[in-house]
Design goal:
The complex is a heterodimer.
Chain A lengths: L2 H9 L3 H23 L2 H18 L9 H30 L1 H9 L6 H11 L2 H12 L4 H8 L3 H18 L10
Helix pairs in contact in A: 1-2, 2-3, 2-4, 3-4, 4-5, 4-8, 6-9, 7-9, 8-9
Chain B lengths: L5 H12 L10 H21 L3 H26 L7 H5 L11 H26 L7 H17 L6 H18 L7 H13 L2 H8 L2 H11 L1
Helix pairs in contact in B: 5-6, 5-8, 5-9, 5-10, 6-7, 7-9
Classes of the chains: A mainly alpha, B mainly alpha.
């Protein structure tokens, strides 16, 4: 069935159609949420909230972009806002218990390349990390990322380029493993 | 150390990053069950809230009290209105799809504040002056924006779309303190431009309207 028909049925309150839309998009939303959050509970919370908001706001979906693109924009907003809240919460906790938490994350004796890469990705500013994971890992196009983040595709490209540059710097010690 | 190849580096990173926070299988059924339950719960909570009519009466009484106080003060000490107050009160009434006048006044007043804020923010951002305190102001405006989105003003499609745009940009400015970099400022500035927000705000809450409502009320 055409997705527009499914959306029309969702607007009419059809629960089966809601489930169809959910099934069509949930994998991609959950995968992105998990990649960004790195935590199953958070990824599930973000995914659920994204779908709840989408169903609540579906009357406002004007069909100017694909439904998936519209939904990814909602999901990205939910995830990024959620991660900012989590970050603030963890920072407050770290203030109270800084010796243990901060010490543990910064002292990493001799990480192998994958660990080093993971640490470098963690250290990217949230927007660069989002673009990098969406594009290089989850295969979103710059156009999709642009809509999701509310920026022009060119900005997405620029952010990806900066993210890669930072990763290259962080991994310079391992250059032999990909250099010719 | 050899010469790095861009292509090789990108391939290497793309391959290696697949293991970064590798997602498990999507827990579809579990999440769907929670979505259904959460939506039902929110629906119940909404039903338990005062009806729009009751809310309208409360807002209306509050607005009337503020207007009455303002008129009293205005008559005592303020300048004479250049246009009769009746013109302000004759805004679309609270029936059907139209926004009740009290909410429309509140929404337009808020949008004028937002427009001023964005204008100053853009100027400061471009001049490299934007300070962390901006985030606090943005948060206050964001809170009022969300209140209006949930009020009858948010039921008007045009107003709702504008408030949505305003919410997104204010949220970005409010979170600017998390990563206060020139690049971040540029992105926010571009976002305001790209959405044509200042033009939309000026169209939605023209200065003449603001002056008129201010004169009428105070």
């Amino acid at each position: 069935m055409d997705e527009r028909e499914v959306i029309a049925r969702v607007r009419a309150g059809d629960a089966v159609a809601e489930r169809q839309l959910y099934d069509a998009h949930v994998d991609r939303i959950y995968r992105l949420a998990y990649r960004l959050a790195g935590d199953d509970d958070l990824a599930q919370d973000f995914t659920q909230e994204a779908f709840i908001r989408a169903f609540e706001r579906i009357e406002g979906f004007r069909g100017e972009a694909a439904f998936g693109t519209w939904l990814y924009a909602i999901a990205t907003s939910v995830v990024l806002n959620g991660l900012r809240k989590v970050k603030r919460f963890r920072e407050r906790e770290a203030d109270l218990d800084d010796a243990v938490t901060i010490g543990a994350s910064s002292v990493d004796a001799d990480p192998d390349l994958k660990e080093k890469l993971a640490n470098a990705v963690d250290d990217l500013p949230l927007k660069y990390r989002t673009v990098f994971l969406m594009h290089d890992v989850e295969g979103y196009t710059h156009e999709e990322i642009g809509v999701a983040l509310g920026v022009p595709p060119g900005t997405s490209k620029a952010q990806l380029s900066r993210a890669r540059a930072r990763l290259r710097d962080a991994l310079a010690a391992f250059a032999g493993q990909w250099a010719s | 150390m050899g010469v790095m190849s861009d292509d090789r580096f990108e391939d290497f990173v793309r391959q290696s990053a697949k293991d970064y926070h590798r997602p498990p299988e999507t827990p579809r059924e579990q999440m769907w069950a929670r979505i259904v339950a959460e939506r039902a719960e929110r629906k119940l909570a909404r039903a338990a809230r005062p009806s729009p009519r009751q809310m309208w009466i409360r807002w209306g009484l509050a607005a009337a009290a503020v207007l009455a106080l303002g008129i009293g003060i205005g008559r005592g000490i303020g300048p004479k209105p250049t246009r009769p107050l009746m013109e302000v009160a004759a805004l679309p009434a609270g029936n059907g799809e139209q926004i009740p006048a009290a909410f429309e006044l509140a929404a337009r007043d808020h949008l004028r504040h937002v427009e001023t804020f964005f204008t100053v923010f853009q100027y400061e951002a471009r001049a490299g002056l934007a300070a962390d305190q901006t985030a606090g102001l943005a948060r206050n405006l964001l809170m009022n924006t969300r209140l209006l989105m949930d009020s009858p003003a948010g039921r008007d499609a045009h107003m709702a779309a504008l408030l949505d745009d305003v919410e997104v940009m204010l949220a970005q400015i409010a979170s600017y303190a998390d990563s206060p970099t020139p690049a971040e400022l540029r992105l926010i500035d571009q976002g305001i431009e790209q959405r044509g927000l200042l033009l939309k705000l000026r169209a939605a809450a023209p200065a003449e309207y603001g002056a008129l409502s201010a004169q009428g009320v105070l």
